[in-house]
Write a structure and sequence with these properties.
heterodimer, A: about 55 residues, mainly alpha, about 0% strand, B: about 325 residues, Tetracycline Repressor, domain 2, 2 domains, 15 helices
């Protein structure tokens, strides 16, 4: 079995998928960082859940 | 030429869907315009009197930039027909046959919605609301609505580019104040002389595309007069801002120098006629355009410097 040289199209698709993967990973990291920053804020308080109105 | 007739031309019929590279999509965001958006939004955020957590600040600037990029993608989606006709824009991803119009539209809409929602979650509803309005204004009011109808297109379009520092300020403070309105006004007044100087030496491009630039509808003499009038008004505004909350001695010094230089070029442009300009290949117009880029950068850097100095108890007039 011989290996064929990768077509330019495949390289372009790989580049696009890799770029998208990195962007998504960065987005996840950013949302995580934002969450930490928000809950670390002095003003942050977990909303109280009212127990039964009756 | 009407919008309808302009939009029926399809310069990209050979483009295959799904074959664009990552860089082609990135190019749809107009990265060079985005640098201006990032810089001015950052200055708005940092000049605000309220501190922001670095991660929140970073997220805010990123989502403002993404929102600006989404506007750029939607602008390219709508204008692919005239982009194909102008030398300056022929290499953009849609006319170059790298991205289809549908892909650009889907990409732009997705990023627009995502940037507004994420800015809201990261900061506040006011900042997200101004970003949403900016995208709407740039794409619907300017690109789709007015650009091909009025020679004042540059003046109106300038408003969209002027919002980022106001969004940055709102992200930090949750308000709109005189200082953020002044930063808006500075970019708003700067845009017309900046673009009209470009239109003078990029002659032919806008005529070919049928865009009613002032140079085409009112002539080049009128454009030269307009550049001078706007530059005088800009100088008054820019120097006046030195005596407000965003100004101070450093800003005043920068404003005096750059406005003197810009006024010198605007007067030179006004005094010249086409024969003189053609004789030296638009030397003065090109110089004014390059200077205008430094002009805006210098003013916003000075605002940032004043904010940094006030953090040390040295900024402003106190």
């Amino acid at each position: 079995m011989s290996f064929r040289e990768e077509h330019e199209l495949h390289k372009r698709r790989f580049g696009r998928n890799l770029g998208l993967g990195l962007v998504l990973a960065g987005f996840v990291a950013l949302v995580f960082g934002m969450t930490i920053a928000k809950v670390s804020n002095e003003d942050f308080a977990v909303p109280k859940i009212e127990q039964g109105a009756d | 030429m009407s919008d309808a007739s302009l939009n029926t031309a399809s310069p990209v019929s050979h483009t295959q869907e799904g074959e664009a590279g990552f860089g082609d999509f990135f190019a749809l965001l107009k990265p060079r315009v985005m640098t201006l958006v990032v810089f001015t939004a950052l200055v708005g955020l940092l000049a605000a009197p309220v501190g922001v957590h670095p991660v929140i600040g970073f997220a805010a600037i990123l989502f403002i930039a993404v929102g600006g990029g989404a506007s750029g993608a939607l602008n390219m989606w709508w204008e692919s027909d005239i982009d194909a006709l102008m030398k300056r824009t022929q290499k953009r991803p849609i006319p170059a046959g790298k991205v289809t119009r549908d892909e650009a539209f889907a990409f732009g809409i997705t990023l627009a919605v995502m940037s507004v929602v994420m800015l809201w979650l990261a900061t506040n509803a006011l900042a997200a609301g101004i970003l949403a309005f900016t995208i709407f204004f740039y794409v619907v009011i300017y690109t789709i609505g007015l650009k091909r109808w009025t020679p004042q297109n540059i003046v109106i379009g300038g408003a969209a580019g002027a919002f980022p520092p106001m969004i940055g300020w709102a992200a930090a403070t949750g308000t709109v104040s005189l200082e953020s309105v002044l930063m808006f006004a500075l970019i708003f007044m700067w845009t017309p002389p900046h673009f009209w100087a470009l239109a003078l030496f990029m002659r032919g491009d806008y005529d070919t595309a049928g865009v009613p630039m002032l140079t085409v509808t009112h002539g080049r003499r009128a454009t030269r007069v307009h550049i001078l009038v706007y530059t005088v008004l800009l100088a008054a505004l820019a120097i006046g801002a030195a005596f407000t909350g965003i100004g101070g001695p450093v800003y005043l010094a920068v404003a005096v120098i750059f406005n003197a230089l810009f006024l010198r070029d605007a007067i030179a442009i006004w005094r010249r006629d086409e024969d003189q300009a053609e004789a030296d290949n638009y030397r003065v117009e090109k110089r004014a355009f390059r200077l205008s880029l430094w002009y805006l950068f210098a003013h916003f850097t000075a605002i940032l410097a004043e904010a940094a100095l006030s953090g040390l108890g040295l900024g402003g007039w106190t």
